[in-house]
Amino acid sequence: MKHRLRVAPIDHRFLFLTLFCIDWYHIFGSDLITEHFLVKYKGTQNLKVLSYKVFYPFERESECFTSSEDALENPIDVVTTFAIHINTVDEHGYQIPLSRGSFCDRILHEICIFCGDLFHVQK
Amino acid sequence: MDHMKPNPGVHAFDRLRASFLQHLKASSMVHYDSANLFGMIPLKRLGANIAASPEYEVQDFFQLVITTPPESITWKMVRAIEAIFYHHPNAKVVVYSNTIPERDSKLDMFKDVGFDVEIQSYSFKDFFDAADYIDSNTKQAFLAKLDDLSKNQHWYTHEADLVKLFVLERNGGVMLDTDIHLVKAFPKTFVNVAAWRTGENAKVGTALLSFEKNNKFLKGMIEDAIDIAVNRYSRGKIMR
């Protein structure tokens, strides 16, 4: 509650300033590249945008850390998926812990080098 | 002999040795220090120069940017780098950071076991020196404003995005965020690529990018980004 009270006046002030973008984090990242690809350099041959399945197969990425393989339909396509993006920060800014038996638990145990460390973290 | 496929078992063996060394370090520093003293570290990998993915040609140059303090390196970030070396044991990984020290960081574990990790510092002045496509007045204005920019709450993430663009344009190669986990080897044919974030194709993701150097699209993005930072960036947001 304390936190909310401290943040509230700042948010309130910005409600009046609608000339600001809402998305703070992706100004020079996703927002910029999307604008360039779809508007400024529409039809460019200097960038190919692949299907979401190639690097971002999860619809809700945190579910990879929390849901078991049985509950979560495997979104990884054996042929087309090369990477998974696992942003597991919740809406309050905290890291969601990796649950034993979750989908990512299996992947992170299969594709590892210092595998012993992960077991240690989970204990 | 020339037609024999390389033995993929050497890489699995290297991984087991790496894991063992890490276990040894965690359980007794005496053993680790002795190994250091007698020149056993860094380990000499059996799979050095032996291809790990004979099925197709893979990328061998990966880059990351870390703008947060050393203590922010989580096991998940370390695992992301492990995934790179798991699939590309002979790759070079460069971490661009002004916060992570070149020695005595969590990334030393990769160097200890013979993987090629390098931590490089950066400066916007150096990026600008190599960027003749940006107007010199804009460069000056950005550098003059940099101190103020860095005071913004979200600057660490914005700085990382800018550094990613400059580094990719200058060096080419693959740039990954620290929350990307490779599930198989990254093909060499993936050049000048990004991917949509969702099935609706509304936003292009930047967590994993692969570009050739001097890419025109990247140059255009950088020009725009610097213009935004100089003229429209305020309190971590953009004025329309």
Which helices and strands occur, and which strands form pairs?
The complex is a heterodimer of chains A (123) and B (240).
Chain A: H1 2-16, H2 30-40, E1 48-50, H3 52-55, H4 63-66, E2 83-85, H5 103-110, H6 115-122
Chain B: H1 9-27, H2 29-37, E1 61-65, H3 75-87, E2 92-96, H4 108-112, E3 116-120, H5 124-130, H6 136-149, H7 155-171, E4 173-176, E5 180-182, E6 193-196, E7 204-211, H8 216-231, E8 233-234, E9 237-238
Parallel strand pairs in B: 1-2, 1-4, 2-3
Antiparallel strand pairs in B: 4-7, 6-7, 8-9
Keywords, separated by commas or semicolons:
heterodimer; A: mainly alpha; 2 domains; 6 helices; 2 strands; globular; disordered N terminus; B: 240 residues; alpha/beta; Spore Coat Polysaccharide Biosynthesis Protein SpsA, Chain A; two-stranded antiparallel sheet
Q: Can you offer a commentary on this structure?
A:
The complex is a heterodimer of chains A (about 120) and B (about 240). Chain A has helices at about 1-15, 30-40, 50-55, 65, 105-110, 115-120; strands at about 50, 85. By secondary structure, chain A is mainly α. Chain A has two domains: about 1-45, no CATH class; about 50-125, no CATH class. Chain A is globular and about 45 Å long. The model of chain A is unreliable at about 1-20 (pLDDT under 50). Chain B has about 240 residues and is of the alpha/beta class. Helices cover about 40% and strands about 15% of the residues of chain B. Chain B is built from eight helices and nine strands. Chain B has a six-stranded mixed β-sheet. In chain B, strands 8-9 form a two-stranded antiparallel sheet. The N and C termini of chain B lie far apart (about 65 Å). The relative contact order of chain B is 0.14. Classes of the chains: A mainly alpha (about 120), B alpha/beta (about 240). At the A-B interface, helix 2, strand 1, helix 3, strand 2 and helix 6 of A face helix 1, helix 3, helix 7, strand 5 and strand 6 of B.
